[in-house]
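Hi all, a correction to my earlier message: I attached the wrong file for 3-hydroxyisobutyrate dehydrogenase. Here's the right sequence:
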Amino acid sequence: MKIGWIGLGLMGNPMATNLINAGYSLYVYNRTSSKAESLVQKGAVLCQSPKEVAQHSDIVITMLSNVSAVEEVLAGEEGILKGISNDSIVIDMSTVSPKDSVHFAQLVNRQQAHFIDAPVSGSVQPAKEGTLLILAGGDASDIETCKPIFDVLGKQTIHFGENGKGSAAKLSINLLLGITIQGASETFVLAEKLGLQKADVAEMISNAAVNTPIFQMKKSSFLNEDFPAAFMLELMSKDLGLVKSEMESAQIDLPLATAANKTYASAKESGKGKSDVAAVYLEIKERNF
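and the right structure:
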């Protein structure tokens, strides 16, 4: 089985590397071609366009930063749709809105090919380890066909239903992620204002019922106030903006989602966008100290 991979950023590169290490033939494209060098050294073939990737591949996977990038790679003049074969499968692992995933599925289906929206829960380290949680929307038989690939990339694949449902699941889990990290940040700021030591607060949270795996992942960042990006804050802001759009469309009132969207947007605007999502702590601290 020949696999095409488009998008070699913080997440895409380690995910594609795992597929090469698992023995798959890989055709890759990235707008900045230098990001493909490590993969080419491992045997991947560097293509000059998404169209060329599609021409060589049975399954094409995209992992891109936003909907505009996916649209261009899929439907542009040198896009996937120009080179795809009948019965090929396109898997979009980017975080986009459910309606955008449905739109992309329709474009692919018109070419007599198949589409799966399969965004992931997890950041760079799980991507390297192949322990992501894959959130799939699409036809069950297509997802079964792709299961060996998903098993390399993640620890579990959950099929939520038809196209768009994987993207709906991703927005839902990232809402909880954003709220959880903001909640921990506010807890630290409150405790510090009340005269508590940050290390003691971290120990308390770690041994309380509210401890979470994500808190443990980010604990050292909170303590050291150092936020190298595993999942950039600007991407969380983008995702919460998508949540806001879905709320407005479905007339849903979610107070915490509204507050989190404003906080992360403010943090992005104040220059923290390229830092890790947990840098929202700095945004909250700066408001209070």
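Sorry for the mix-up. Residues 235 and 269 are 13 Å apart (CA to CA).
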